Amino acid sequence: MEVKLTTITPEQLKTPPATMSGVVFGVVFTDHMFCMEWEDGKGWHNAEIKPYAPLMLDPSSMVLHYAQMSFEGLKAYRSDSGEHVLFRPRENFKRMNRTSQRMCLPELDVEEVLVALKQLLRLDSGWVPDEAGTSLYIRPAILATEEAIGLKVSSKYLFFIILSPVGPYYPQGFNPVKIMVSEKYVRGVPGGVGFAKTGGNYAASNLAEKEAKELGYTQVLWLDGVERRYIEEVGAMNIFFVINDEIVTPQLTGSILPGITRMSVLELGKLWGLEVKEIRITIDEVLNGLKEGTVTEVFGAGTAAVITPVGILSYKGEDYLIGSGETGPVATRFYEHLTGIQYGKEKDPFGWVEAI
Ligand code: PLP
Ligand code: COI
C-alpha cells in the first residue's frame, strides 16, 4: 500500500501534555492521523497520513443514520528501555475484520494496515507518554460514507486511525470499582452484534451506564439477553471471577466482545498452571459464592481498563462486597505481569509485544 504523507506545518504543531496526571481518557489527540477510502469496484485507495483534523462528511452519510461502522482500541507503550511497542496488534485488526463481516464493511489487509499504523506512530512518537501506567491509545474506525438515506449496504467507506495519549481509564486507577448488574436492559442477544466492536453496542448501553452512575456505580455488568441469568461482560471490559482458586470467565457465546486482554489473561493463567475456565456462569452462582466465601475476587480486563478490580457488585438493590472490597492477589498478579510485559519489565513468553 502506498501511503501519501502530508505532515503538519510548524505553526500547526501541538504540544503533548507535560504530564498525564489529570488528563481525562481520550480527549487529547496527536498531530497526525491515517485515512484511507474504499469504494465499490475500487477497493481501498487514497491511503494518507495527514494532519489531525475534522472529517468532511455529508449529512446524508450512511453511518450517521444507520451506524454502519466498526472500531478498535489498542495501545502503544513506551518500554523501560525507551523503545515504543505494540501489544498483539494483529488481534485487533483480525477482530476488526470479524466486526466488519457482521456489519457488511470491507475488510482490511492486516499486515498492510499494521505497516501504516507503525508509520503513523513513528511520526507522532513524541506523543507516547512515559509516566507509569500511561500509553498512546490507538483508535482505528471504519465508517459508511455513501451519501444516501435509503437503507442498504454503503458503497463507500472511510477508514481512519487516530491516536490519544492516555492514563488510567477509570479515575480510580488500579483501585476497586463498584459495578451494578443491569436488570432492566440487555446488551446483546444470540444472533445479534454483541461480539462486534461497533458503535451501536455502546450507544445502546449508555442509558444503563448513566443510571448506574447516578446511583454511584462505575459501570454495569450485563446479563444474557434471553434468560437474564448468565453473566456476560461489563461496559468496557470482560469479567473474571476467582472461584475456589480457579479463574472463571463467561464463555464466548456470540453476545460478548472477545477481548484481547481476556484472551491474554486466560493464556497467562494457563502458563502459570492455574485452572482457567470459560463457562456459562449465573449471577446467582456468583452471589452465593460471595456469601459462602468461595468467590474471592472479581476483576475486569480490557485494553482501556487494563485489569480493574471490582470491590462491590450490586444486584436488585443490594450491594455485595467482594472479599474485603480491596484489590486481591490474583488481580494484582495479572495486572503486574500484563503491564510488565507491555512495558518491557517482564519476559514476554508468548511474543505478544512488537517493536514499532
Ligand atoms: N468488552 C467490551 C464491551 C469492550 O468495549 C472492551 C474493550 O475493548 C472489552 C470487552 C475488552 O476488550 P479488549 O481486551 O480487546 O480491549
Ligand atoms: C477499549 O478498551 O479499547 C475500549 O474500546 C473501550 C472503550 C469503550 C473506551
Automatic annotation (TrEMBL):
GO annotation terms (biological process): amino acid biosynthetic process; branched-chain amino acid biosynthetic process
Pfam families xref list: Aminotran_4 (PF01063)
One annotated GO molecular function: branched-chain-amino-acid transaminase activity
Cofactor section: pyridoxal 5'-phosphate
UniProt keyword annotations, A-Z: Amino-acid biosynthesis, Aminotransferase, Branched-chain amino acid biosynthesis, Pyridoxal phosphate, Transferase
PROSITE patterns according to UniProt: AA_TRANSFER_CLASS_4
InterPro entries, alphabetized: Aminotrans_IV (IPR001544), Aminotrans_IV_CS (IPR018300), Aminotransferase-like (IPR036038), B_amino_transII (IPR005786), BCAT-like_C (IPR043132), BCAT-like_N (IPR043131), BCAT_family (IPR033939)
The keyword Metal-binding belongs to this UniProt entry's keyword annotation: no
Keyword Metal-binding assigned: no
Similarity section: Belongs to the class-IV pyridoxal-phosphate-dependent aminotransferase family.
Annotated NCBIfam families: ilvE_II, PRK13357.1
Protein name from the UniProt record: Branched-chain-amino-acid transaminase
